[in-house]
Q: What sequence folds into this?
């Protein structure tokens, strides 16, 4: 019995594949390699194709004994989702619909879906709990929220059980230092900060220091990518035990300001990373911190990497040895 990882060549997906293999699971990856990297897949069987292509889905499900699916295959650039929302709705929603149709046709009953804290939009409470209102402020978050709703109807109609995992700020890299974050267009804070000591960027721009926070910069909850991976496997196993569909937040429950992240990166790299305050980035909520109590309790999830220093240290191990990502 195998687990199918859709989008297994991406940042979080590749850490998922590694974690499943480490746990002795049989893994099949399906990826269209539009943003993912073949070198990021450390093992298992690999199929190249798009979720919107029924033929490749049928082939993957026919040739393998797939018991559960973990779906990471999506576009995830918030800024791009605002300028080209249809690209996001088409890929992120149609892709998952096509996957669910194939699951229905092939009698696969379990799916763990990669969702996001962006489903909440501007939070009404901190820490954020799963029952808080969802009002996405960007098309990326909206595309993920739409899929969560589609999953609910597929559960009631076809008995496909799902777990949607709403990640906060995924960060860090595999302990081996062999796989890590490698986006063609990098927008995330930690990899951008680490480009400064790698001499790929002169300074890091801090997007606004006039927020209503202690030092005026935005606060986020950073969660290690391998801790995200472990939560997905626990979610698959929970569904296989016959438990009901659920939505869980995944974060560390601790917030760090942009300035604090820069300071920890200076300590980890032992470099004086230059930073400059610039304009706010449109659509950034001031504070996003998860309550992951539900995941900790119901999934028996125990995040291992709960210090920001360890998280940034693991990212540094990857970036300093792979300054060009997977490119030679
Ligand atoms: N940020 C920043 N400079 C950058 C990139 C990001 O100040 O070059 C800030 C951003 O405004 C946010 C935080 O860092 O408050 C985390 O941003 P990221 O894009 O990593 O994740 P997001 O919270 O948007 O998912």
A:
């Amino acid at each position: 019995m195998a687990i199918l990882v859709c989008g297994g060549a991406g940042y979080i997906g590749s850490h998922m594949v590694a974690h499943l293999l480490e746990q002795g699971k049989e893994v099949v990856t399906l990826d269209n390699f539009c943003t993912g990297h073949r070198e990021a897949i450390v093992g298992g069987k690999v199929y190249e194709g798009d979720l919107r292509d029924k033929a490749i889905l049928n082939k993957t499900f026919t040739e393998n004994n797939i018991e559960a699916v973990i779906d990471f295959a999506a576009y995830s650039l918030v800024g791009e989702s605002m300028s080209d929302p249809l690209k996001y709705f088409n890929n992120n929603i149609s892709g998952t619909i096509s996957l669910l149709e194939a699951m229905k046709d092939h009698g696969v009953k379990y799916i763990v879906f990669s969702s996001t804290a962006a489903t909440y939009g501007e939070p009404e409470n901190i820490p954020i709990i799963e029952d808080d209102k969802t009002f996405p402020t960007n098309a990326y978050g909206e595309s993920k929220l739409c899929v969560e709703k589609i999953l609910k109807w597929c559960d009631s109609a076809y008995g496909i059980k799902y777990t949607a995992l709403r990640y906060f700020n995924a960060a860090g890299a595999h302990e081996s230092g062999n796989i890590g974050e490698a986006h063609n267009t990098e927008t995330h804070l930690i990899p951008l900060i680490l480009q400064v000591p790698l001499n790929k960027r002169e300074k890091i721009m801090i997007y606004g220091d006039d927020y209503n926070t202690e030092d005026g910069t935005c606060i986020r909850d950073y969660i290690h990518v391998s801790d995200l991976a472990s939560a997905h496997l626990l979610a698959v196993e929970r569904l296989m035990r016959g438990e009901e569909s659920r939505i869980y937040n995944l974060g560390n429950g601790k917030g760090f300001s942009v300035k604090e992240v820069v300071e920890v990166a200076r300590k980890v790299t032992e470099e004086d990373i230059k930073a400059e305050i610039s304009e706010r980035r449109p659509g950034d909520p001031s504070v996003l911190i998860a309550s992951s109590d539900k995941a900790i309790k119901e999934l028996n999830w125990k995040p291992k990497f709960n210090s920001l220093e360890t998280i940034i240290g693991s990212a540094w191990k990857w970036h300093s040895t792979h300054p060009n990502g997977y490119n030679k």
Summary: The pocket of uridine-5'-diphosphate is lined by residues 169, 187-189, 192, 204-207, 218, 220, 258, 281, 284 (CB under 6 Å). The mean pLDDT is 97. The first helix runs from residue 11 to 22.
